[in-house]
Amino acid sequence: MIRQENEEELYKYITGITKNKGQKLLAVGRMPDYMLMFIGVNRSMEIGDFVSAIKSNSSRFINKKKWVTGKFRWQEGYGGFSYSKSQIDRVVKYILNQKKHHEKRSFREEYIELLKKFEVDYDEKYLFDWIEDDD
Length: 135
Fold this sequence. Notes:
By secondary structure, the protein is an alpha+beta fold. It is 44% helix and 11% strand. The two termini are 16 Å apart. The mean pLDDT is 87.
């Protein structure tokens, strides 16, 4: 829903929220149906509280800017995965090359693969509303 010409301003805004919350944004990238953020997390903050702050503040920002028709809101839920310091470069490259990754696999396929890799139990009915389901 966010047009490409607004992407950089949105990323800067999200970077500001992240800094204000005492966290460090390492990479951010988006596709039409989701956004990825790689964050150096300060352990003093609950991940759910941080995600909620990003979503609520950026939604207000997007609506104030009138970047979408109607009212913008992020989908409920989020996925969070932990990586070691030695993997930072690889994860940053992954995030910055999302369009290339999805030429081979959908977000749904990649996300379910991550859940399995990290041994996360899940029920498919509680996962995201996938954009490819709208086709």
